[in-house]
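Throughout our pipeline, every protein is held as a single compact record rather than as scattered files. Nothing more is needed to write down the fold, since each code stands for a local backbone conformation. The record that follows is passed on verbatim for readers who wish to inspect the format.
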Amino acid sequence: MKSNEPLIRISKRTDVSVKTGIIVRIIAIILALIVCGIVTKVFTSDDPISIYKTIVQGAFGQGRLLVTIHDVAILLCVSLAVTPAFRMRFWNIGAEGQVLMGALTTAMCMFYLGGKVSNVMLMIIMTVCAIASACVWAIIPAFFKAHWGTNETLFTLMMNYVAIQLIEYFLKVADKSGSNVVGPNLLSHGWFPQVFHTDYVLNIIIVAILTIVLYIYLKQSKHGYELLVVGESESTARYIGINVKKVIVRTMALSGAICGLAGLLIVGGASHSVDSNIAGGRGFTAIMVSWLAKFNPVYMILTSLLLVFLSRGADEVSSKFGLNSDFSQILTGIILFFIIGCEFFINYELHFRTSKKESKEDK
């Protein structure tokens, strides 16, 4: 009798300790860097040690440390935004669009109200508008999901493109020169103040406080418990008296609000300009950060740092050795491939059908 057992079977691991998981991840990153070194060596004929030094310099070289920390903070902010929805099993792929809406309304406030109200009042208006607009942008797919069961992944993804077109329209209205960027010359008011005579510090402080608050919200609050129950089973949530529709809308409102804050920080506290690429793909990278950190805000600090370090390092390698700009994305892709692969083997185990077992069943 022939066995019906598949050739390869996957089962969930339950015996991997935290220490083992950390060791496996470190090994995966080392292997990824070795492969990146080999690939770069083929294209540049330079020694791997100088390549690795270039990666480190790209992230932590002279004058770059604060910029790297700021990039980590912004990516962390967007990652924090998608986490409540993901814990609820609401797959919000629209963080990019929600950040863009926050950035757009911030720029509009700076453009139309700059010089007409005090700087303090302008920053208050910018904050309210950025958070409110992104919040509404996130509530729309949540409302449809809660009341009519629409597909949130497709809905939120499509709204990204709508947000891009809204920014493109604003660019044409605000800058008659046809430029694809509305820059600091037109957005000269509402800039965040320097802290310790340094840019970006206020952004970093705000995100640090937000990380602590969201950790407490998810771990200790009633709302955090309710969204977790809804994510596990909507039927169970209804049985114990949780208003599922309310939780879905409320959680997405929170995600949108944090995305709006990220857009505010990018425009008001960093670039002082706006264009359709202002989010820089962080809305999609944040999904990776949140998933790798197991939806834990504290662990997200490390995963955000890792991805920003690798990305800036890869950009520096591409720039220093005169390679095509897409080469940095190839290096980043190699590293992410190893990281995702190690996460799979940490969480799952492969079982192969053995010939010995097959022969026993035949008998």
Observations:
- The first helix runs from residue 18 to 44.
- The chain has a mean pLDDT of 89.
- The radius of gyration is 23 Å.
- The chain has 14 helices and two strands.
